[in-house]
């Protein structure tokens, strides 16, 4: 071992347990329930889990795999391809794994990201056999300082019988201090989460574990797989524009100040572009209480617009990663990373009054949102934290382009064939066409506002026709059951939602 | 005025404002936004709002009406019948009003019961012009001591320009003390809700108002309209039995103690019967953190099984009401009534670990629940607080009979045509056939458990056929879009869900 490696193991007994990733991967037994670090590609296992995936190519061995959220590189793909997964939860975003899920080769449990740790603590999921967590280093007590995410790692290491630590040499030692690790006490002894501002701290800078559980320590030196960030395009710029105009009006009407309230933004290019839009706005002293921080957070900090950001992970482009690491000291006191059941806690989200901005796959004329299942059946990624935030937010906003793929698809449909967020949880809908403010509206009023503002011109008359025909049949939420999915069926069969 | 009436007006200036209900009802102007007390028939306006309904029979006058939840007697029916409602929110349970909503004569905004007050405070709903609230009495400061419910009254009186107080002589003066009124501070200054046990108190025993707003005081002497409670039948007893067996197992496995965790039960005969089932069980020292207390709560207290119950209203049968009032001193220290944004607060529900038991209209093979819209279009009552509890509970349980109306309807269907609670928020489903434990299961696994346990024998093969055909098409959540609503369409056209 190199000196700089050994400097990251401040607890001597672990020095006896240093192994290669292949050796460590042997601790994983058939049918194990394995919990791994990693949230939206950040802070995931970069050697032991991939080594296990390789091992599963040769051996008939399968596990149930729990993570924070999506993993990086090809880990999920390799695991799926090599038939190593019985069940996966609570989130994924990998095309190969997705295919394995949709063909019933891998069982997938799509959960609110705040729920997995809760269910583990309550015994509503089986306990973890083995946890694999990435670390910046281990301290003198054998406790783990995480890297670019916290995710469910604290709950996994608490539940697990055995722990494998992956020390990532590419993360600066100065990372200690950006984490705030807190594990709720078991019922009925739960306590108040004393977070009253985005920068509130209630825990420790490390994950306290029982050092006896650590069966292996492995070294890596590989950064997180970078986020693919697209530059703002016409659609994302238009969405951002509509939303900024809306916030302007809220400030003008006295409902919000120029600091707004803490922002949450889902993962992905639309949410990132929307946040970036704040750079050239009148808003100031913005904060985030979110689950993931993307490039836009650091852009807003650099622009002097954002003063603090709380999340469970940092998932940035290669360029932003370099900039962030080189200038870490500038950001360190403006950041905190929390376990995902705290970053996504209903209690804190409601108390802070978070403004939640999430991406929809599609929404319907009454404001129900599908975030997960394409054509109602094929899993895309998962609901992630969108439900944690949408339900308990001050304002629940969903954004998507109105008609992608050369307008062959309308993302505003008669009825969504899968509901992740019901009409009750959706305040504002935005497409590049415009913004629908649904607050205080009945379904019929909502439909009018959505028709007027969000629908692509090529689908406007077609949606109007559906709505008028349905309305004539009566009912609080008018629908024609025979035709509710006709657009989706048409797309499935004819590759367009346009009815001829 | 009689002496005993004047004894209930401890603030002298109000004595000048005593009016008849007809006189008071004249304060209601056309297009007013009126907020009234009343939650599941309890503590509603029994004279002024009915007088307004009568006035609207003669006059062309319409209002937007907000309440806590449903109102008692014929008030909602008369308002609807006389064309007095532009819009109604956030809940109703009246057949005449329901018909008016479903024929688009009254706009209806169906909301999570915790949300209305939040939206008012945040300015996301227009402010209240006039509030009408039932009182036990008004104290020396002009503050209002509520009656059998709190609902949204504190938020309405805060928002309103004018207030009408209805002093109900039928409520004993000793009611003072069972209420705990708290109004959250405006953002960004929200505070922690320091409730860590069902009996926790954070507010005052009265609603603090600005006495200058009080334009009229009216006397009534009429009890709440009684709840219609059916005796347990074969179905509700079987549901109760399955659920008790489940709780037994949870205790045996060490996840729960014999006191379980605080219970919530939705309004209605099934939930009431389920709770009654605890009377002859091994469970003890039970508590409730619910929105409404029904007869079963008092039965459990009488049986020495329940030690404390928190809610926003007390809605009981005539018999139970008499018993409760005559023995009020026995119950007083075991009860607290809170504003519905506190009884249904995500923060408190999650902290206490509430076990939520709510009634579904129907659910589907993947565990999505419809609580509101019959055949996807016709409003029944509303989502009520079921979403507030289901999302943030320790366990989210939904119950319903499997095949009512002579088995012409199956309440387990291929796809629900309206989703109020998505698969993500549903842990346990129970019909008289059995209990499906969905914790940690993927959609395909869920379908098997639901098929095995919940479906009526007369629909089992039919549902199995749908599931197998859908599964063969693939997808994480298999469905046949053309057939997903075929059962509902068949019922609409042929009055049975049985496919020939």
UniProtKB/TrEMBL annotation, chains A, B:
Keywords: Transferase. It comes from the Bacteria. GO terms for molecular function: transferase activity. Residues 12-218 form the Acetyl-CoA hydrolase/transferase N-terminal domain. It holds the Pfam family AcetylCoA_hydro. Residues 328-466 form the Acetyl-CoA hydrolase/transferase C-terminal domain. SUPFAM superfamilies: NagB/RpiA/CoA transferase-like (SSF100950). The keyword S-adenosyl-L-methionine does not apply. Belongs to the acetyl-CoA hydrolase/transferase family. PANTHER family: ACETYL-COA HYDROLASE. This is Succinate CoA transferase.
């Amino acid at each position: 071992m190199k000196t700089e490696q050994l400097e990251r193991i401040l607890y001597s007994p672990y020095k006896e347990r240093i192994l290669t990733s292949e050796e460590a991967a042997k601790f994983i037994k058939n049918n194990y329930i394995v919990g791994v670090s990693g949230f939206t590609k950040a802070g995931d296992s970069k050697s032991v889990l991939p080594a296990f995936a390789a091992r599963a190519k040769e051996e008939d061995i399968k596990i149930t795999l729990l993570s924070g959220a999506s993993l990086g590189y090809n880990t999920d793909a390799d695991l799926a391809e090599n038939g190593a997964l019985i069940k996966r939860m609570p989130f994924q975003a990998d095309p190969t794994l997705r295919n394995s899920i949709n063909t019933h080769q891998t069982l997938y449990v799509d959960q609110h990201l705040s729920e997995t740790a809760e269910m583990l603590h309550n015994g509503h999921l089986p306990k973890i056999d083995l946890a694999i967590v990435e670390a910046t280093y281990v301290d003198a007590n054998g406790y783990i300082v995480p890297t670019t995410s916290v995710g469910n790692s604290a709950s996994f290491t608490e539940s697990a019988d055995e722990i494998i630590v992956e020390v990532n040499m590419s993360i600066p030692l100065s990372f200690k201090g950006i984490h705030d690790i807190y594990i709720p006490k078991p019922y009925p002894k739960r306590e108040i989460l004393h977070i009253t501002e985005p920068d509130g701290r209630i825990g420790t800078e490390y994950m306290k574990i029982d050092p006896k559980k650590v069966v292996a320590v492995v070294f890596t030196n590989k950064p997180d797989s970078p986020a693919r960030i697209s530059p703002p395009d016409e659609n994302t710029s238009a969405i951002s524009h509509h939303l900024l105009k809306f916030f302007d009006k809220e400030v003008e009407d006295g409902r919000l100040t120029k600091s707004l309230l803490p922002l949450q933004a889902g993962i992905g290019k639309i949410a990132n572009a929307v946040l970036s839009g704040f750079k050239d706005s009148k808003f100031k002293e913005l904060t985030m209480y979110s689950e993931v921080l993307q490039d836009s957070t650091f852009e807003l900090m650099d622009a002097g617009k954002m003063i603090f950001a709380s999340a469970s992970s940092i998932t940035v482009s290669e360029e932003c990663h370099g900039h962030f690491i080189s200038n870490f000291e500038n950001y360190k006191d403006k950041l905190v990373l929390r376990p995902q059941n705290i970053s996504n806690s209903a209690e804190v989200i409601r108390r802070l009054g978070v403004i939640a901005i999430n991406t929809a796959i599609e929404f319907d004329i009454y404001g129900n949102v599908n975030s997960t299942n394409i054509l109602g059946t094929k899993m895309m990624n998962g609901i992630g934290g969108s439900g944690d935030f949408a339900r308990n937010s001050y304002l629940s906003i969903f954004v998507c382009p109105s008609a992608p793929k050369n307008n062959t698809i309308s993302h505003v449909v008669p009825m969504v064939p899968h509901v992740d967020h019901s009409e009750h949880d959706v305040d504002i809908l935005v497409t590049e066409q415009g913004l629908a403010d649904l607050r205080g509206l009945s379904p019929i009023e909502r439909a009018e506002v959505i028709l007027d503002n969000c629908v692509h011109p090529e689908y406007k008359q077609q949606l109007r026709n559906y709505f008028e025909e349905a309305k004539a049949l009566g009912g609080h939420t008018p629908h024609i059951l025979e035709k509710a999915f006709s657009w989706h069926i048409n797309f499935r069969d004819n590759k367009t939602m346009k009815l001829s």
